[in-house]
# Entry
Amino acid sequence: QVQLVESGGGLVQPGGSLRLSCAASGNIVSIHYMNWYRQAPGKQRELVAAITSGGTNYADVVKGRFTVSRDNAKNTVYLQMNSLKPEDTAAYYCNAGVQSDYVVRDYWGQGTQVTVSS
# Structure
C-alpha cells in the first residue's frame, strides 16, 4: 500500500558529499515523521536524523555535516551528507510514519549503501 524507495548511495572519497533521497508512494494522506537510520557491519542500527513538522534532530556524530530536509509535495525526504568520513560507511535506511486512513503505520525502505573510502 505504501512503499519507501531510497536512492543516492554510492562510493565517495573522504571529504566528499552525497545526497540520499527517500520517496514515499502509495495511498498517502500524510507523513507524520521521516527518519534516517544507518547500520554498519558488526554494529547496531543507529538513528542518524529525523524530521517532523516540529523540526529536525541529528545524532551528535553527524551534526554540522548532515542536513535532513523534506519536500512535502513530492513526499520525499533528503539527507545531504557533507564532509564524509570513513566512519560514515554504512547501509542507510529510510523510516517513515505514514497515515493512509485513520492510523499511522511504520514503514521501512530497502536501504542504500554508502561507502567512504580513498
User: Anything to note?
Assistant: The mean pLDDT is 96. The first strand starts at residue 2 and ends at 7.
